[in-house]
């Protein structure tokens, strides 16, 4: 039997119900946020799927969800503001299910912008993960001064988010585990395994420390 047994769930968001997929686990509780809703981004995006699966494979509880206005989620696109509120609702939902577990937030592309806003204002979030953060489209200045562990994974051949701009942003952050993947594009078509290993590397290092 597969260990990936996803439960369809509904999260009460500020603009209505948000549909999600939840996998139980105990190691940590992870909210995963998808890319831009107006460009086909959903919780079923391939990168989001493999990010979620990577956390599930190490025993984490994971919820990935559709932002407002996507598929069966209620509401309308709100340029990142409302989507950050949706991510906060997902953090509240998962935190209530796993009050004793560390709470983590992960996002891909636009999902980093919405998700990290939610995490920045939530002291419960112990770790953050950003894959191809779209720093060329939105300001991530709200992250200034945050000292919690942040893993950033970026393709050097990203055709949507320039590597140099992500590098410049990473240099402003205090606690970053940065992984630059040679030859990888925005959706990591030939580098998905490297992306997922990079995503988890800091967790494994910390787990092995005396």
- Written as H for each helix and E for each strand, in order along the chain, the element string is EEEHEHEHEEHEH
**Biggest sheet layout:** 8 strands, mixed
Number of strands: 8
Work out the radius of gyration: 16 Å
Task: Extract low-pLDDT stretches.
Answer: none
Helix content: 25-40%
* First-residue to last-residue Cα separation: 35 Å
Feature tags:
single chain; 210 residues; alpha/beta; 8-stranded mixed β-sheet; 8 strands; 30% helix; globular
How would you characterize the overall build of this protein?
Helix content is 30%, strand content 24%. The mean pLDDT is 95. With 210 residues, the protein is α/β, with parallel strands linked by helices. It is built from five helices and eight strands, in the order βββαβαβαββαβα. An eight-stranded mixed sheet has the order 1-2-4-3-5-6-7-8, with helices on both faces. Helix 1 (46-57) packs parallel to helix 5 and helix 2 (81-97) packs across helix 3.
């Amino acid at each position: 039997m597969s260990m990936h047994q996803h439960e369809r769930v509904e999260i009460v968001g500020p603009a209505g119900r948000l549909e999600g997929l939840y996998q139980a686990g105990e190691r940590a509780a992870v909210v995963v946020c998808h890319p831009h809703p107006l460009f086909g981004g959903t919780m079923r995006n391939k990168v989001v799927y493999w990010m979620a699966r990577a956390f599930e494979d190490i025993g984490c509880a994971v919820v990935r969800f559709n932002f407002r206005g996507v598929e069966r989620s209620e509401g309308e696109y709100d340029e990142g503001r409302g989507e950050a509120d949706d991510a906060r609702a997902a953090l509240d939902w998962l935190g209530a299910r796993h009050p004793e577990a560390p709470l983590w937030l992960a996002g891909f592309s636009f999902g980093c912008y919405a998700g990290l806003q939610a995490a920045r204002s939530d002291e419960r979030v112990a770790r953050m993960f950003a894959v191809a953060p779209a720093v060329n489209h939105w300001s991530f200045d709200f992250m200034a001064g945050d000292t919690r562990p942040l893993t950033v994974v970026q393709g050097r051949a990203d055709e949507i988010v320039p590597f140099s701009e992500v590098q410049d942003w990473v240099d402003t952050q205090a606690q970053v585990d940065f992984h630059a993947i040679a030859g990888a594009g925005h959706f990591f078509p030939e580098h998905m395994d490297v992306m997922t290993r990079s995503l988890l590397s800091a967790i494994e290092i910390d787990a092995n420390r005396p």
